[in-house]
Amino acid sequence: MAPRIAMVAGEASGDLLASHLIRAIKRHCPDAQFYGIGGPKMQAEGFDARWPSELLAVHGYVDALKRYRELSGIRKALLKDILRNRPSAFIGVDAPDFNLWLEGKVKSAGLPAVHFVSPSIWAWRGGRIKRIARSVTRMLCLFPFEPEIYDRAGVPVSYVGHPLADVFPLEPSRAAARERLGLSAKLRVVAMLPGSRQSEVRNLGETFIATARLMAERNPDAVFLVPLATRETRELFQEAMHRQEAGELPIRLLFGHAVDAMTAADVVLVASGTATLEAALLKRPMVITYRMGKWQYRLMKRMAYLPWVGLPNVLCGESVVPELLQDEATPERLAEALEAWLANASACAELEQRFTELHLTLRQNTAEKAAAAILPYLGDNPQWRAAHKPA
User: Fold this and answer.
1) Residue 167 placed within a domain
2) What pLDDT does 196 receive?
3) Which pathway does it take part in (predicted)?
């Protein structure tokens, strides 16, 4: 009988990750069927989306509380379907706050529950490992230091690498990216990524513009690329430019094209998040920054376990690039840190080599490895099902 797999993927990143996984599983099980909560990329692979993945795009505690009843109802409806129709397995892609509850119920019912993308228990809220151990049949990890954490807790785990490392070239072409963007090879190009969320652009937009002003005064050949993901964030940044009277600055706003902007750049100023990993895979020197509400920052700092927030530093286990956060994120200090990279070609070359080694570690053919870890749960596996038969 063809395997049926229930899946939940949250937001655009989960939709992309899950679409690659569906394609990889279908290479081994062409007749496999997938359904649940997903996005357009999953649907393009034949996924039956009962609900769209953007429903799970919740930003912050306030938004989560406002939508709790709606999301809880969707989750219970999907669980009812899973328990009634008993698919071969359930796969939760990221969205841990939504998926771990479902996975626990599915596992208790004697069905395999796989979670793809480990929550950041190594950074904060490490106590979640106990809940994860109760909830999942197998954890699929993107980073090489994560499996040891799950091994200690007795959670079956597989390291599958990071999908971006499969997609990004080992030797990105700065010249080709500049040609695509219509930029001269002689320019000093600074990519500035203030974040994908409106709150991030509000908190960092004016600081980024003031930083560009300082750098432009000292570097007349500089141009500043600011890729923005949505119309709303673009409008917020334009409003900040108007307040700063920055019309004369060589700032070029891009709609998307973040990867091209970073590839073309000599140095990158980037808000903490996935974009820092993208910059590392593109082998670019960077300065990582972030700013949030004072009390929120104090709470996050108290809960954090590591001395870094940026993924390049976390993955390398040391401060390979500067992090200027909160009150340290002043235009003067950011400009100084960016110009330090521009003035030190040997440091940039050393960092490029370090990031190449990191890239090779993360490049594991993620979708295929994830599929290989999941396939044993899809067939008629009497030993596994006997061991996990519900009481």
Assistant:
1) no
2) 83
3) Bacterial outer membrane biogenesis; LPS lipid A biosynthesis
Give the Cβ contact number of residue 138 at 10 Å.
Answer: 20
Range of the domain at 299: 174-362
Question: Which CATH number do you get for residue 268?
Answer: 3.40.50.2000
Token pair for residue 96?
Answer: 């841990």
Query: Is residue 169 situated within a structural domain?
Result: no
Angstrom CA distances, 9 to 17, 92, 97, 188, stand at: 8, 6, 12, 40
Give the pLDDT confidence score for residue 390 in this predicted structure: 43
Confidence band (pLDDT; 50, 70, 90) for 391? Answer: very low
Query: So what's the pLDDT on residue 379?
Result: 72
- Condensed to tens digits (0 to 9), the pLDDT of residues 91-119 reads 999 999 899 999 999 999 999 999 999 99
Which pTM does this prediction carry?
Answer: 0.87
Name the nearest CA neighbour of 316 among 277, 344, 345, 346: 277
252 located within any domain: yes
What phi and psi, each to the nearest 5 degrees, are found at residue 6? -85, 140
Helices 68-85, 96-108: inter-axial angle, 10-degree rounding: 30
Query: Can you give the length of the chain in residues?
Result: 391
Whether 166 and 363 have beta carbons less than 8 Å apart is answered as yes
Residues 75 and 190 occupy one common structural domain: no
Establish if 29 belongs to a structural domain: yes
Secondary structure percentages of the chain, helix, strand, coil, to 5: 55, 15, 30
Cα separations (Å) of 151 from 123, 129, 159, 194, 371?
A: 17, 11, 11, 37, 20
Q: Can you say whether the dihedral through the CA atoms of 36, 38, 43, 44 is positive or negative?
A: negative
